[in-house]
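Worked example 3 (structure in, sequence out).
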């Protein structure tokens, strides 16, 4: 016996029947647009019919280059409902990367925001875009584009809002997303219907993001970045109201949407919420409906969690990656920690959290042995489960990122006695000094604890004797550099062994960033000038 396959379509058809009047709201260039789930399902149907008339079939790739808005939300269901993969292109990637991934994905149609036409044109190359038959423009007039273009209204007009969708199986295509390439060239992850279905069900649960029909969900995390953490699917599945903040929302836009729409749950990277906090210092706002802010993609600073706690809003910390669709862990408090003091609870909330039900995990050392769960021993995190990919799109399955069904996450973690995973570095960034690991992120955080430091990035630079030694790049407005170096070194020494103190501090105007705003450590290492053969103050324990 088998049940009916796990596919995305029933999430929307159920919501349209049970919550026909619940709203989907979007901030657009033309003001706020709102319509009901009943209309949402019709608009999805019309877009799917139009795509099918344009020749889109099972297994095809339809791309989007769009902000978070109604048209993008429609594509989220219209494309997978045909068994095609929705390839969400990150318009902030360098043009070269966009060119490469369009060629590799062989996208047939691209839905593009009028305001992002420039990014598409810049990436255009006749060979790379050979598969692209049409661009469909949303959010404005059809601009000059190097590929045949049509406006969304003209594209969908006259098409059936209630098509007979094909019968799909769990292995049919649903999505395609490329990593942002923080540690190398972007790699594609193709999601099946079953992967996105299982991810949706997991994040709906209390162990995930606990989303229900009581919620009004506003994904600030871009829909071009790992399916906006799966929120558009989960919110629909739950029958929650949805709010999309549109092109480049600033803190004032976000606060206005929270107030006007009664948002209960929102999500985005920590920098977004630090911006909102700054804004709130000078502006009155009514955040009384807001219960939870999901943060992930980077570790939230402690002050972010404290400041929102003071305002009665819970910051929910999650971990994930493109390869895990993306949510893999969420830092909810275990019952045994509920009655602990605030600082103890905060320590656990700052960790990347408890692996979600349905996934398995291991943290292993260089020899592949599991490290003890003592909160100190570092190992690379391996995960597997129904929504974790086992290969990259278009590449050999024997890629070193996979060990059978296990994904090597490239994240270096500790696991504490309660099972909370804490990410201490990326495997590509961890510094191997004399055979011992130094967590570059821990050293950065220690240095950034000095109020005079605006930003600090720490990278491993080749060293004759020790293999690698840490070098810190520091951004500061302060003039007293020597005393700043002494204080930073002291902070590192207080928390970690002496030999974790960087050999050199370089003062720079700014730290280079990748397309998703992470420190570009590959660039920093490549740009390092000189050599590090001087001896270090305190020597690492091993011989390199
Ligand atoms: P890329 O690998 O190109 O950066 P992703 O967007 O898939 O692309 O990033 C996933 C990575 O982001 C994770 O492997 C991890 O290093 C980092 N990350 C995700 N969530 C967190 C978090 N809560 N804290 C710290 N780092 C995180």
């Amino acid at each position: 016996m088998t049940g009916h396959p796990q596919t995305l379509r029933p999430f929307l058809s159920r919501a349209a029947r049970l919550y026909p009047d619940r709203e989907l709201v979007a901030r657009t260039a033309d003001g706020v647009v709102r319509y009901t789930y009943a209309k949402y399902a019709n608009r999805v149907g019309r877009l799917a019919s139009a795509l099918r008339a344009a020749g889109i079939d099972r297994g095809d790739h339809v791309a989007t280059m769009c902000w978070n808005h109604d048209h993008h939300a429609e594509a989220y269901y219209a494309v997978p409902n045909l068994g095609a993969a929705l390839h969400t292109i990150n318009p902030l990637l360098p043009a070269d990367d966009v060119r490469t991934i369009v060629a590799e994905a062989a996208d047939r149609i691209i839905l593009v925001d009028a305001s992002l036409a420039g990014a598409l044109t810049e990436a255009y190359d006749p060979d790379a875009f050979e598969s692209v038959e049409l661009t469909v423009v949303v959010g404005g007039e059809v601009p000059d584009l190097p590929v045949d273009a049509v406006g969304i209204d003209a594209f969908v007009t006259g098409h059936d809002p209630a098509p007979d969708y094909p019968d799909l199986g769990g292995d049919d295509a649903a999505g395609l997303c490329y990593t942002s390439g923080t540690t190398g060239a972007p790699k594609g992850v193709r999601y099946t219907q079953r992967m996105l279905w299982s991810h949706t069900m997991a994040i709906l649960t209390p162990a995930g993001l606990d989303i229900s029909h009581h919620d009004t969900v506003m994904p600030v995390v871009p829909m071009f970045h790992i399916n906006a953490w799966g929120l558009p699917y989960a919110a629909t599945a739950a029958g929650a109201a949805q709010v999309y903040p549109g092109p480049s929302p600033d803190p004032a836009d976000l606060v206005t949407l929270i107030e006007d729409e009664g948002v209960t749950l929102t999500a985005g990277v920590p920098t977004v919420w630090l911006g909102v906090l700054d804004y709130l210092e000078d502006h009155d706002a009514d955040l009384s409906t807001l219960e939870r802010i999901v943060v992930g993609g980077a570790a939230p600073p402690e002050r972010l969690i404290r400041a929102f706690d003071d305002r009665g809003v819970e910051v929910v910390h999650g971990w994930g990656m493109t390869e895990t669709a993306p949510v893999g862990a969420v830092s909810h408090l275990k019952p045994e920690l509920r009655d602990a003091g605030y600082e103890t609870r905060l320590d656990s909330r700052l960790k990347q959290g408890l692996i979600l039900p349905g996934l398995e995990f291991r943290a292993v050392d260089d020899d592949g042995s599991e490290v003890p769960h003592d909160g100190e021993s570092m190992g690379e995190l391996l995960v597997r489960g129904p929504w974790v990919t086992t290969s990259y799109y278009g590449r050999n399955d024997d890629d070193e990122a996979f060990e059978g069904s296990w994904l090597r996450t490239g994240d270096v973690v500790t696991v504490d006695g309660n099972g909370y995973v804490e990410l201490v570095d990326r495997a590509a960034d961890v510094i191997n000094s004399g055979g011992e690991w130094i967590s570059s992120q821990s050293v950065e955080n220690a240095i950034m604890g000095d109020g005079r430091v605006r930003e600090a990035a720490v990278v491993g630079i080749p060293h004759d004797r020790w293999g690698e030694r840490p070098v810190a790049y520091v951004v500061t407005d302060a003039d007293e550099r020597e005393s700043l170096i002494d204080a930073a070194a002291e902070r590192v020494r207080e928390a970690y062994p002496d030999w974790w103190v960087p050999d050199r501090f370089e003062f720079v105007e700014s730290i280079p960033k990748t397309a998703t705003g992470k420190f570009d450590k590959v660039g920093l290492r490549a740009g390092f000038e000189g050599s590090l053969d001087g001896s270090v103050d305190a020597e690492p324990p091993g011989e390199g």
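Notes: The mean pLDDT is 94. The longest strand covers residues 453-463.
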